Amino acid sequence: MRALAAGFKLPPYVLDHGRLGIDEAIEVKGAHINNKSLTAVWLRPGAADPPAECRICTDERQYVLAAGQSWTTREALAGQHRNAWKQHQEGMLSLQSQPHFAIGQRAFLLQTPAGNVLWDCIALLDKATEALVRALGGVASIAISHPHYYTTMQDWAEAFKAPIHLQAADCAWVVRPHPSIRFWEGEAREILPGVTLICVGGHFPGGTVLHWAGTLLAGDVLQVTPGAHRVSFMWSYPNMMPLPAAAIRQIEERLRPWRYERIFGAFPGQDVLADGPATVARSARRYVELIAS
User: Fold this and answer.
1) Torsion over CA of 231, 106, 64 and 181, rounded to 10 degrees?
2) Residue 58 banded pLDDT, cuts 50, 70, 90
3) What 3-state class would DSSP assign to 77?
4) Pairing mode of beta strands 92-98, 181-184
């Protein structure tokens, strides 16, 4: 595995836990992961108590309910929820846990001639989901837009023997290191033929979208708005903290060379089905006008 470029400095948190899949990937047993802020999944078998907090949840880009952090386990999650599937276009399905769990994001399974890609992640990987994914061809690669959707990515990687592609700028937010994690650098990385990750930044420095077959999968790095004729951008969505104009310009500039029509966001109904580039350009221009006025 290729090391990061000379001069790239790992944050102290990363150095404390090994190099997180760059050269000497290790697994910290008992580390916890989260599915956003409302409930975190506790992976600490045999321990009496969960951790005191989820560090991703307590970051300003997320929040913890006034009642405090709550925790669950893999087993409890599987006993109370199931995953619902939807086909959006040929070779692209989404899955989302029901009833609503935590923030309620959806993941996508892309079927390509070179293998399937899991885009973003949900916490629930039950036996039914595993069987369905295997029947659809398994998973050749996993890619995630930003740390709020890391969830149980390590479990998915182990189940399907797939690498996880994460932008190196967000490496400090990996709280359960795993040998499957592959950090990538730069503005773009093709992970399978025709499947390209594009780092646009914004919500997180490593904020990433996926380009495939005339489609942009955006997570909430680009947030498709109600009405599906605009997108928006925020540093913190729950705390309504905006991005500076320079960050918005960067997002629009990095997407400008790419050809696509459709944009699929993190949540059901957040689908721009035509004119994607014009939607992004118009939305970015108006955002900058407002924030600069």
Assistant:
1) -100
2) confident
3) helix
4) unpaired
Provide the CA 124 distance to its chain's centre, in angstroms: 15
Tokens found for residue 206: 């490593």
User: With contact defined as beta carbons under 8 Å apart, do 108 and 187 qualify?
Assistant: no
- Kindly indicate whether the domain formed by 25-292 is annotated with CATH number 3.60.15.10: yes
DSSP 56: T
Residue ranges of E strands in 36-89:
39-41, 70-72, 82-89
Q: Alpha-carbon distance 176 to 18, whole Å?
A: 11
Q: Which two tokens stand for residue 104?
A: 């309620």
- Residues with Cβ within 8 Å of 81's Cβ and at least 6 positions away in sequence, in order, are 97, 98, 99, 101, 124
Beta pairing partners, 40:
34, 71
State the residue for tokens 């780092």. 199
* First and final C-alpha spacing in the chain: 47
Tokens of 280: 């992004």
CA atoms within 13 Å, Cβ hemisphere of 161: 3
Place of tokens 């944050």: 11
State the chain's maximal CA–CA distance in angstroms: 56
β-strand pairing of 164-167 with 181-184: parallel
Digit-coded pLDDT (tens) for 146-167? 999 999 999 999 999 999 999 9
Rounded alpha-carbon distances, angstroms, from residue 159 to 31, 141, 204, 244, 271: 19, 12, 28, 40, 29
270 vs 264: CA distance, rounded Å: 6
Q: What is the pLDDT of residues 24-39, one digit of tens each?
A: 222 222 223 333 333 4
